[in-house]
Amino acid sequence: MDFLDELNPRQREAVLAECGPVLVLAGPGSGKTRVLTYRIAYLVRSCNVPPWHIMAVTFTNKAAREMKERLGPLGHASPRQPALLTAAQLGALTVGTFHATCARILRRESTALEGWDADFVIYDTDDQLALMRQALRDLNLDEKKHKPSSILDVVSRCKNELIAPEDFQPTSYFEEVVKRAYERYQELLRNNNAMDFDDLLMKTVELFRARDDLLRAYRARFQHILVDEFQDTNMAQYALLKLLAGPQPCLFVVADEDQSIYSWRGADYRNVLRFREDFPQHRLILLEQNYRSTATILEAAKHVIRRNRQRVDKNLFTQRGTGVRIRVVEAYDEYAEAQFVVDEIARLQAAGEATANQCAIMYRTNAQSRVLEEEFIRRGMPYQLVRGTRFYERKEIKDALAYLRLIHNPHDSVSMVRIINTPARGIGAQTVAQLEHWASQLGVSMFDALLRLREGEVGTHPASVPPPFSPRAHNALLRFTELLLELRAARTLYSLPELYDLTIKRTGYRDLIQDGTSEGEERWENLMELRAVTQEFAFLPPEEALPLFLEQVALVSDVDGLDNAAAGTVLLTLHAAKGLEFPVVFIVGMNEDVLPHARSLGDPESMEEERRLCYVGITRARDRLYLVHTFRRGRLGQNGPCIPSRFLEDIPDELIERRSGYGADGLDALASPLRGSLSLVDAAGILRRSMGRDSSAAGSSPSSPALSARQPRFKAGDVVWHPQFGEGVVLTNRLTHDDEEIKVSFRERGVKWLSVALAPLTKLE
Fold it and tell me: Is 638 part of the annotated catalytic residue set?
């Protein structure tokens, strides 16, 4: 059987498209990864394109891995159908993320870079923040007045838009500070032989613009370029693709502007429109058949997204059948919301309808996970939290990596500052500050300053000053220098796992961790887990293994840590859910000011992105979808009534099964206007009007006669009994204009806000 026979007509049309600019607009679950992999296989097998002439770029390591797996013997081979590509062909392809691909190009062409060599390190977010703080200190700017993270945000946007420090034109005092900090930050990066993520893209574009000979060489090398998730490209990435594509582009991009949700990190879905303008001869192909979701879920998604204006309309369809209705659930508050979700997952498990790891809970912001995590912990149910690269954020892991980075690149001052006195070796904060300042006066890196201290060559520099260290600190620094030189000499003699073992032992870090405590044992297990990662590079020559290992670790993304085989329910933000799918999906916090986020109100473009975010969440579900909103929710330290999300109003009633009042006895009377024959549109209007009355009333003084004359029924410390929640202790109470609300910590059901007028509470003596 020909491998192309597995494709539907639209997929086949895309795979067989003639060389040239091709834009494939692929709806969710439409098989875009299959199209990309089969396109590569078609070029190699049917068009005889040498695989080293093909470059495929993705946005996550997970997507790159999946593409390679599908192309190779492990991903596709069967008795009926051999692998799409041989191992040799697969090895000759260039498949990776934008950042990984650019890092490889920059290392290969490092002699053309001004200020960096091939051993440059890649700084993560924490490293960037530490370096920006140093830049502000060097400029005598107070970081309390000038927030380093805010400055880094502007710097990142500048780099994404290919604006160098000298080209940045400030229009305010804050921007003046940004310009100075940006300039110093780049100087420090260069001094440390380091780049941040944005540099990888920007420096590659600058390199190709400055060196036409190199650009021609890479155009000759990468004659076919394929791009996944093209709608998420930023200006720098699009500029890079245009440069490499050249005047006769074989540029094959797959996009879905309805899933563009990363504008906050520079992604610009309008690159899809720019592609159509910049390549007017392009071929447009729509992939509209969804293989993932039921017809009910897909229809709901279509109704949510169709209100957006800046999009190409797609007639998505599926042959999977109708499936069950979408459950729209109203819980009393975020605690009841968490209880409902965990209860329902337990019910699905007990009924054999889903396992825990087939369920995912998605939310708009990371802060929403806390209540959910507490409920899972209270119930003793396993869960996975997808939030950044948590393993690599642990102190012992960052310390070990800092040692390895310093062995690879001794000019990395951020790593040096981190471990120079870890374990303690008599080099305190004052000595480190003196070393930083002395190196700055000499105009060299901290490592070069240590070498001058060791060799007694202080007087050879035209701007030299004597070392400022006490005899004790002087000797401690010399011992550290000898240790570092010893480990650097070992890097070419040992395999990477052996170098790792030597480093942990010789630095004293092993003895520091193995302190006989349970915490120390856990930290040691983490270090052994990192060693297992180094084992993957054991077969490489020593001079290649360490830089490749450090690069892989630096480029790990959020979802790379997701274990599909683990037993627990997956908790993750809607942003992190992109590219994933689950049989059962719960989207919680379906309230105004949450989803859509309060920041998007009044901004049509931001609101469109919030709608796309909701669309992404809905289309992650294969079989069952739950949309959960609350009657009340804690926000910014306040707890008040909520409005159901406007996105719920877009979904037709015939697709929905509703449940209200979960989690609070007596809530039915309070929530009754929101149920019955009223639509969500009507319900939201009623609640908006009631909130309006509340807010106007809330403007009166808390000490008004009406309130002060009333006596609360409960006070902090009272023990109460609730028929559903059991025994609890009152934490706090507050009077409203017609009721009393109390916050109760229940022994078995956690913390809840309750209406005294409605909840059947008994005070226990």
Answer: no
